[in-house]
Here is the input.
Amino acid sequence: MLTLKPHQVQQAAELLVSGQLVGLPTETVYGLGGLASRDAVVARIFEAKQRPSFNPLIAHVFDLQAAERIAQFDPLSRRLAAQFWPGPLTLVLPRRTDAQLSWLVSAGMDTVAVRVPDHPLTLEVLRLVAAPVAAPSANPSGRLSPTTAADVAEALGGRVTAVLDGGPCRVGVESTVLRCVDNVAWLLRPGGLARQQLEPVCGPLHRAQDDEHPRSPGQLASHYAPLHPVRLDVSAVRPGEALLAFGPQPLTGAVATLNLSPSGDLTEAATHLFAYLRALDAVQPRAIAVMPIPGHGLGEAIGDRLRRAAATATP
Ligand code: TXA
Ligand code: MG
Here is the structure.
């Protein structure tokens, strides 16, 4: 793994544009960055983090104008962005329908988390890349977030192409995550920007459970759930069902079929998961039947998501 010095920001940007993963300094913690528009790159971020589930990621952008190309702002979110960006504030907003963004970044949901980080090197990288960069904290799942380039090298050295050394992180804890709905701000994750700084701008902060039932109106979904029932581990398709297939021998008889990976590659399957679930949902099937998917590698996260989808879809 390369450690890039501050004068090598251009190289960091070029690596990202070519589809590589790069550790990036921010004011909060180091991020594990990759192009947010590319499904296969985002899948490799999850692979590198060895996350057993697909948590949605934050899209990092250069400024508010770039953020407005992927997310829909209302007066409250625009005021928060104007006041606190660049800075340790992440806003969860409705995705623009024309956003150039992998569905994996938002874990299949209609919302996207965006922020403008306050670090001169990463801002320069974002300016050069001129596209959103998805970056979860650069730690393997279950480990502490890294606050130096050496931490990133130690934790993920074999799994990223490079880390850009921007020195120790000033804030040291992750950004505060807010969701604005109907001009009310909900706190999804406390972080580097304190409630006392936020409330004069956004009014009283409401506290939300990260994991509320995603289908109840007005609540703050953190998982995508299809509208139609999902049936797992099927060995035969029932009448009226759509099929989410996997592997070289897809079942027959479905009203529509999409194959996550005809060759049985789990990383490829992850890149298609949310886009295919959405596409099959749109066919208005009686149910979405899902073929068995192995549980190793990214299969663990795929299985986690599918089980949630099967549990939450309303028949
Ligand atoms: O400071 C930070 O935020 C760091 C640096 C690298 O920017 N990034 C970071 O990313 O902490 P990550 O992936 O470790 O945490 C992202 C958080 C998670 O709690 C996730 O659930 C939430 O943001 N999140 C992302 N997209 C969301 C969405 N569409 N709806 C609800 N929550 C979302
Ligand atoms: Mg994290």
